[in-house]
């Protein structure tokens, strides 16, 4: 099988490598010539532009986009579209918002698959988990590629119509935030608590048979092993949050309570309040107002 | 009527003043002679010790304790008890834990009233809200004093048996935390949000007829007037929390969900995590673990 | 002064009454002829249509809309617009979404004021709290009307440019949800807790001098007085939630944590899950999965 | 090695089986003679009482308690103690409160190990995760038994001094509640959301390579496979909660915010409010109070 891959960042490169390794042909393009060269070294045929990539693919083009969510996807699709027809298949393997995917599926001249991809760079060896939305025939057509990119046949599933792949991935990410925060609460209590514990040991014994074992807990174990039981110099300002925000917004739309996911999300917002949380500052002034508790002041 | 007042801090002094003003006699004692002198200046008869105060009161002693919750109450009661019998009445007007009040009521030789007192120093002029637990006859006996200390006859109520006064006051304080945090959330959103608003104006117009008007909102208005719409130099580390903790513990005991009160309480804990929240630091390391997001580091 | 009022529901009728009472003239219209008749009985001049109302107003028209938020506002404005020019002023006193108000202000031929109105039907006597956005000259022009509709000169404020009035009202409503939920938590704990308390008494004594006194707490007192201390037959499914949802969405947009407002909002969603919360049902099956705890089953 | 096992419920029987299978000798006792007979069938030597069990063990007794947390542990220890000396080792493998374990360790005549045991009945084949507190020499002495009962040498760890094993297990359970609730939120959103999804498929593809893969997610997959994607007749009232309550209480004690664990815990409390949540009922009455929204009433 022949696959065009557009977008050769960390994740796109893994797609290239796994597809090549499975014995397929890859034509690769990225705006960064160095990334194209790396893919070529790995065995892919380099393309000079989106158009060139499309030209090099024969009839029944199969193309995997791994470009940053947002405008880059639309720009790439605009360049691609003149080269596409209804027998072609485009996969968006990035973290796109599901409503964008629904819209793109409607206007794209090819069949359009929205593919939520989980597993991160660590999936290079194990393979990814792929949640795919869009036309069933296109999903089946791409099965050899999905087999290669995923952990195997069990690592990809057809979720449903257009947008459903990115929808399930969006919820996955919301869940991910709350799982991380949950382990964080547990370890914070153990760290501040009554016993002087080796948290790597705790994570390790939990990972061997405890109800709460998981891959994220294996990453906790790794974190304590590499950073020390007090996490050394790791700081507490957390970036990111867009997919979690989408999840909470969809919960509001569907009137589904998501208090744990919400709390985990806004913990990130709170961590970025560099001048101190306004609500806390007001509370301090109110405590003076009714109880004459001394108002703490910033040092300048 | 003659009232002994033990404990002449800010709140105790207000009790003295209001009771004197209502035309009653006060005998006052505090470990700090200056506080006793101030009370004497206001018209109270000074006592030199707890025993001396008890001796100066005739039969049917009525005594108001306004000492810090905890050991100081027990110590004072220990000194008082030899002077007390079942026709005497002791009021604990402080922020005692209700189970301590139940215990003290059982061992005290006098009738024992636990009196939750709300209103803060600002109550000096308006009077306090008094929630009183203990024997009904003792509550009625003290009515002239309660009328004087409270906002009037409507400002005090008999809640029920021993401990119920401090129980209701404990819940009051939990509610207070969450009300403050709620206004804080609203003003934080207005402060960070799309419009350049004068928050004093917002608080003022809300206080004139809006559903959410309240005394705490009047204190918000005062805060913005005195500190400026961005709260100037007020810092964000919030001290305190014991009565809120009791409320949440009682919620656990009674299996009553108190998510808003809990969240407002632990916001204080979080504001005191000077080295950064451990849970957030772990999240950052995990985000590297699965997504190779760069780990932020503390500057040293 | 002459004011056209369109929309004569409960709130619109109060506007008519208060403006008339202040000595102004009112021309009134509603799709429901009975409502128009009621306004006419109160002293307003009835109009037969939006156009008719516009015709009856002279130059420098001043018009107050009190129609349901959403399409009804747009439909009314469409009918009005041919009659308007830049010297006219339209006030939207309803619960419109602030971004709709920004959009309407841009296209309306008259000066447009978005006016958040709080106080509910209870404001008939006291007057409302009015948060007004839009051109300053228009706000000043309408001052006599605002003085009449509000609690007085302190009951209305100019918040800022277009949309700011409804923006502040949106946040007001989010705060309102969380304040209600907070009092609910407190009274739920008192109701389920250790003492047999008269909750009307508790609310009453708190309203007389306690830190947490407020108008909502007065409504709690009324609730217990009229329904009984156990709230009698009042059910627990809570409708509504749109303005709270907007507040939370804006918090996500501005990256401001609003955990109390969020929790209060989704409490409503949860109260409407008639088949049982899916998350809880899954938890029960998982408890069987790892611990063989018996799975509870629905009775059919 | 020879091990006495007291308490032959589901978990105790698994201990017996795994220790026998590893080639050790077991003397078994339970108050229920049938349970003893089952153990005997499996190859254990039956005992007739706690004393009899102690007598049958030689010097350097090693005894594993697997009785319900609480009074049963104290009662058993009281019966055992006259037979014990400082060369003996008692393991409490149940879900005891860590402060009880500290107390028992102090008074027990033998060395005392508190052993948190996770994995549930499902651990019969795989083995458990064991978190052990108490004297190091005793932990090492019991290693062959721990190797047999756990998943192997990596499945047990010495956490620290007395109580630390049950302390870590307590936190484990708090984390467990929040992980379950997190997955529940995600699947609830998918169930109520925009797409008609097969939740078993979703869980399956997530378990194959996604960041959020875990054993609990495997149990979710099993739940949807066995109950159907809508969880069939599973009801939503959740029992239990004691270990989660302990975790939250310890968080209050240590001033560590645990909002996700708290929320997951009180979700259980809320699921058991058969007459409707009081706080919601009050909110409905307040909505009438300020907005004349109709009060919903219970049908009787």
UniProtKB/TrEMBL annotation, chains A, B, C, D:
List residues binding substrate.
95, 118-120, 172-173, 177, 268
Its GO biological process terms?
D-gluconate metabolic process; pentose-phosphate shunt, oxidative branch
Q: What EC class does the entry list?
A: oxidoreductase
Q: Which SUPFAM superfamilies match?
A: 6-phosphogluconate dehydrogenase C-terminal domain-like, NAD(P)-binding Rossmann-fold domains
Instruction: Determine the domain of life of the protein's source.
Output: Archaea
Q: Which InterPro entries match?
A: 6-PGluconate_DH-like_C_sf, 6DGDH_YqeC, 6PGD_dom2, 6PGDH_archaea, 6PGDH_C, 6PGDH_NADP-bd, NAD(P)-bd_dom_sf, Pgluconate_DH
Any idea which positions bind NAD(+)?
A: 7-12, 67-69, 95
Its pathway?
A: Carbohydrate degradation; pentose phosphate pathway
Q: Which residues form the active site?
A: 169, 176
Q: Does the keyword Oxidoreductase apply?
A: yes
Sorted keywords for this record are: Gluconate utilization, NAD, Oxidoreductase
Listed under catalytic activity are: 6-phospho-D-gluconate + NAD(+) = D-ribulose 5-phosphate + CO2 + NADH
PANTHER family, per the entry:
6-PHOSPHOGLUCONATE DEHYDROGENASE (PTHR11811)
Q: How does it assemble?
A: Homotetramer.
Function statement: Catalyzes the oxidative decarboxylation of 6-phosphogluconate to ribulose 5-phosphate and CO(2), with concomitant reduction of NAD to NADH.
Regarding protein family, the annotation reads: Belongs to the 6-phosphogluconate dehydrogenase family.
Which HAMAP family does the record cross-reference, listed alphabetically?
6PGDH_archaea
- The entry's protein name is 6-phosphogluconate dehydrogenase, NAD(+)-dependent, decarboxylating
Query: What are the top taxonomic ranks of the organism?
Result: Archaea, Methanobacteriati, Methanobacteriota, Stenosarchaea group, Halobacteria
The gene for this chain is gnd
């Amino acid at each position: 099988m022949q696959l065009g891959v557009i977008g050769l960042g960390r994740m796109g490169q893994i797609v290239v490598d796994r597809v090549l390794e499975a014995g397929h042909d890859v034509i690769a393009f990225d705006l960064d010539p160095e990334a194209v060269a790396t893919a070529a070294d790995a065995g892919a045929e380099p393309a000079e532009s989106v158009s060139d990539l499309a030209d090099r693919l024969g009839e029944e083009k199969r193309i995997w986009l791994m470009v940053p969510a947002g405008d880059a996807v639309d720009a790439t699709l605009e360049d691609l579209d003149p080269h596409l027809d209804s027998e072609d298949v485009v996969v968006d393997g990035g973290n796109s918002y599901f409503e964008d995917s629904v819209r793109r599926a409607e206007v794209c001249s090819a069949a359009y698959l929205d593919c939520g991809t989980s597993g991160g760079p660590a999936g290079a060896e194990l393979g990814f988990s792929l949640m795919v939305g869009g036309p069933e025939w296109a999903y089946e057509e791409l099965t050899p590629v999905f087999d290669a990119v995923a952990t195997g046949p069990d690592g990809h599933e057809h979720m449903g119509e257009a947008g459903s792949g990115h929808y399930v991935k969006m919820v996955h990410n919301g869940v991910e935030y709350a799982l991380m925060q949950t382990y964080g609460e547990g370890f914070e209590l153990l760290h501040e608590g009554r016993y002087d514990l080796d948290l790597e040991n705790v994570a390790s014994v939990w990972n061997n048979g405890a109800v709460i074992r998981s891959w994220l807990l294996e990453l906790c174990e790794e974190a304590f092993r590499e950073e020390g039981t007090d996490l050394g110099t790791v700081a507490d300002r957390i970036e990111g949050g867009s997919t979690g925000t989408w999840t909470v917004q969809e919960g509001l739309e569907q009137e589904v309570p998501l208090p744990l996911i919400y709390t985990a999300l806004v913990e990130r917002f709170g961590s970025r309040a560099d001048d101190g949380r306004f609500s806390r500052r007001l509370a301090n002034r109110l405590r003076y107002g009714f109880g004459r508790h001394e108002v703490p002041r910033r040092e300048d």
